[in-house]
Amino acid sequence: MELCLAIRTHDDGWMYNDELPLIDSSAGRPCGLLSFPTEKLLAIDRDTIEIAKRRDTYARLMISMHRTGLWQQRYGIEAGWDVSIIQRMKEDLKPEVKEFLRTEEEWQKQIRDQNSGRKEFSDRYVWANYELMQVWDKMSLYLCHLDEDNPKAGTIARVPRGYSGNDETNLNLIPHSPTKVEVDPWPFDEMPSSSSPLVFAVRGFKIADRAYADSQELATELARAPQEVHRFELSNLR
């Protein structure tokens, strides 16, 4: 349950940005996920972790690892666990980011040492749960970024099948439309049927595709926009 709590709340710090969205000053458009400046991303990390302090200790550990891992290619998942690549990336980070990583990773080690007798704090459980958290994070990003005109297949690598530490697979995401995706192998407890797929819903707002003068104008536009619910149907046809 603690892992589920962490997955649900691992991006809570974004809520403050959503209240006053950042504008790309050169274009007058909302900043995309991959174009946020370092200082803003770091503020979101700190806000998320501050909120996580109210959570269960294990959920906070997972959230902390997720936030620090994002600065390091998800602790190597996206670099084939090549430690040298991760080390070079850390050396190129800004001093304030390095300090953030140092502080959080020291806390992570401290809390794991304090709970060393519990199996869920052991290396194999912590890292398997961390990898699972990345799976659901990547799947949500994949669904929310599906191109309406040309949805493309995707793959999520390094999906643990359990806690043995040596049994992993890849998830193949095969879109049949912008809202209907086949997932193979099927990763959920609940099995879908052709008439009853597994449905995920994402809330959102549709606003005018134009430049905005500043964050306040964009926030006002968002406040006026009606809320929409986007439904994604996941299935396994094999």
| Spatial gap, N to C terminus | 30 Å
> Can you count the beta strands?
7
Q: Write down the overall mean pLDDT.
A: 89
Number of domains: 1
| Count of alpha/pi helices | 8
Give the spatial strand order of the biggest sheet.
3-4-5-7-6
| Strand percentage | 15-25%
Radius of gyration: 19 Å
Helical content stands at 40-55%
Which word captures the global form? globular
Determine the structural class based on helices, strands and strand pairing: alpha+beta
**Main sheet overview:** 5 strands, mixed
Order of helices and strands: HHEEHHHHHEEEEHE
Structural write-up:
The protein is α+β, with helices and mostly antiparallel strands and 238 residues long. The protein has one domain (2-235). It has eight helices and seven strands, in the order H-H-E-E-H-H-H-H-H-E-E-E-E-H-E. It has helices at residues 2-9, 14-19, 38-52, 57-69, 83-92, 95-114, 123-144, 215-224, and strands spanning 23-24, 29-30, 154-160, 168-177, 180-184, 198-205, 227-235. A five-stranded mixed β-sheet has the order 3-4-5-7-6, covered by helices on one side. Strand 4 (168-177) and strand 5 form a beta hairpin. Helix 1 (2-9) packs across helix 4 (57-69) and helix 3 (38-52) runs antiparallel to helix 4 (57-69). The longest helix is centred in the middle third of the chain and has 22 residues, at 123-144. It is globular, with a radius of gyration of 19 Å. The model has no long low-confidence stretch (mean pLDDT 89).
